[in-house]
Fold each of these.
Amino acid sequence: MPALWIAHVTVTDEEAYGKYAKLAGPAIAKHGGKFIARAARYVQLEGKDRPRNVVAKFDTVEAAVACYHSPEYQEALSHAKGASERELLVVETEE
């Protein structure tokens, strides 16, 4: 079943995070992920407000997790660590 990769992010270092974003998009696409929301308008109703929210769709939970652990994404992630506060989860959809 399809899965959504959902990230909630507060960027603390724009330059370093820009390096992450430049590498993360191609890594996600290489693993079959397609962005369906990225830094778009949002309304925070509950919980911690994170001004950058990203949703990508993958074919399966396993594909999304494999992407996260891939060398390409881990290289991108090395630029986000220390440059952001973030939560990331993968959830299976009911489609």
Amino acid sequence: MLVSGRNFDYATEAFDFIDGLDQLATPEDVVDAVAKSFMLFGFENFIITGLPNPKERFEHVVLLKKWPKGWYDIYAKEDYVRSDPIIRLCRTTAQPFEWSEAPYNRDTEPKAAEVMDRATDFRMSKGFCLPIHGINGYEACFSMSGMDLDLSPRTKPALHLMAMYAFERARQLLDPSPYRSSGLLTPRERETLMWAAAGKSAADTGDILGITERTVTAHIASACQKLDAVNKTQAVARALQYRLIGL
């Protein structure tokens, strides 16, 4: 059931979701939790997957999914990952985007059009995608879809953080090797990430902490480097996951 924005606190939902993920013990539990929370935004299906190189099969890089079985079988059999405009855009941007923002030409790219048309047959006509890029070159994405989505300037930041944290939690459960950062976060780095998690801009955080916006940005950049994160949201997700900051 899609929840009205007026009666729904997106930040609270995001933080409750993140807090709940830490209590889960299996990837299957993460799938169920993601499905339940993301349904509030209108999403019916999602997939968390690596982006395969030319020699890899799509099926071998999927981490977690809640896709219609028929669609997953077709997508894998037809090797649609090579033509999917969503996947293509994921490789070239680190910013979340709506499916409608992924360009392709119906006349010159019939396979891309086929991917999008056939997805619609499985109630996957609209979507939101979070590209995930690691400093070491790792590429992945969290792609979610449905028919009637709640995508607005208010909901997208919450979805971004929720998706990033779900990805980090899934990866941790699937590969439970201990996390090793290149150095502990300083108190200022933890503070700036904590306020970023609360939705504060660098300017707002500077006012709160009594430092300049430029200094805040420098602390966040340093934290990103230590956490092997390519952006602030990924750094926040990892800092929360590994208890370097609290909500």
Amino acid sequence: MSSVSTSPADYATLALDIKRWARELGFADCGIAGTDLGEDELHLKRWLDDGHHGEMDYMARHGDKRSRPAELEPGTLRVISVRMDYIPPGTRNAWNVLHDAEAGYVARYALGRDYHKVMRNRLQKLAERIHGAIGDFGYRAFVDSAPVLEKALARNAGLGWIGKHTVLIHRSAGSYFFLGELYTNLPLPIDAPASAHCGSCRRCIDICPTQAIVAPYKLDARRCISYLTIELRGSIPEELREPMGNRIFGCDDCQLICPWNKFAQDATEPDFAPRHRLDGAKLVELFGWSEQEFLQRTEGMAIRRTGYEGWLRNIAVALGNAPHSDEVRQALQARADHPSAIVREHVAWALARQSA
């Protein structure tokens, strides 16, 4: 990082300005954390040792850089953490979609434009405002794009606590928001960490369709539907297919049941609005997309991450869980000879379910 300007600066005033600028740029909240993540580093190491990261090798690839900001970006003294609400008004009710077995459920964060680009652009603008006020300073922006313990940093910055489902919860805004960071060498005053308020509640643990939350604050990603439908590249374990229901990209159950989400705020970013009716489109319709249609319709969206093969695999499982119908069987038969062995396997499983 470049050195901070030697001009005198009132860092307390600058911190207040940064938070104001962040809100003016569309962030819902902003806080400032230090770089000490010792306890979180131990928690991460235990999680990795238990193999709960599954095939997400990148979680272990960078050693301690994930929990030591100054090793990832030398010179880092503080982390400016921001959050942005992501569910726009008018989105189809999530529970209604989950209870409609003919519809495909897409995690609410992934319905619109890829948040990485939206937030990174805003973080860059925030850095430019800081530069305009104090001159050159060292910084680097992150939006789920490097080894960063973003939830722990956001907690330390006062933006919420990490719930028993391992998702960050804000007392006045629930958990439906994205996180982003500016690592900086500015010696800004640090905010007080958020205190936890889950109490004895365990609704998120009890509702998880695949029982992936194996203990409070401990998630086995290998059982998590978000992992199975997005990160996993091979076959979905058979015993987890029926519990997946109609969830074809991600899962929100642990957030939907969380009582703190009665305080969730609507998104103000128009780009997060659902595209192609993905907040409740019919499974048969989505299964009929050609690869070209998939690539065109998911351009600039997080859904692209699963790939076309994963898209068909996931929908095949959901069709296997759908009510028996000729329409579903015909849709599956049309993919029975698909070039992908993964797709064929899951289509065969779904057809067997439809014929049972």
Amino acid sequence: MYKVLIVDDEPLIREGLRSIIEWNEHGFEVTDTATDAYDALQKAPLLNPDLIIVDIRMPGMDGLTLMKTIQGQSSASPHFLILSGYADFDYARQALQLKADGYMLKPIDEDELIEQLGKIKKLMEEERSAKAAEWTRERIAQIVTAEEEADIPEGAAREAGMDWPAFDAVLIKLQSLSDIDSSVPRESRTS
């Protein structure tokens, strides 16, 4: 289930978005709402949303500035779906430059929202698959044997088929015969 944070200064829009569709049926869960960009900046690090649906025009900080700020705070930025009450080309252009995943005009159409969520979900699944593919058995084994230092993401061992309750490890160091001969003391060798 992908986590969603809805950010809009209008209470009717926030609650309307929350109830317009059955989010769970589409693979999403609305974890919270935020009343403005500042509220969202407080909640986003705690909720770690996969998708932020944000109004473009809000008092104080607008949705585009919120998007830039969140993108600048983390390398693993959430996806963004921009909402606007205005068919303003400049807003749409700026949203695209910031790599927004969608731009919808208010009032929100239920079918259009479902279509946008489908596209975003597909994109997130592709990203998740690509990231999981990075964590092969060999890479996890390298980390376990301290050949490489990194945090193994939650679920990576399961994806690589290595989520055993316990295991034994055998470490083998390959050596040539000359390496072996030179490491054994002369008096221990048999003729």
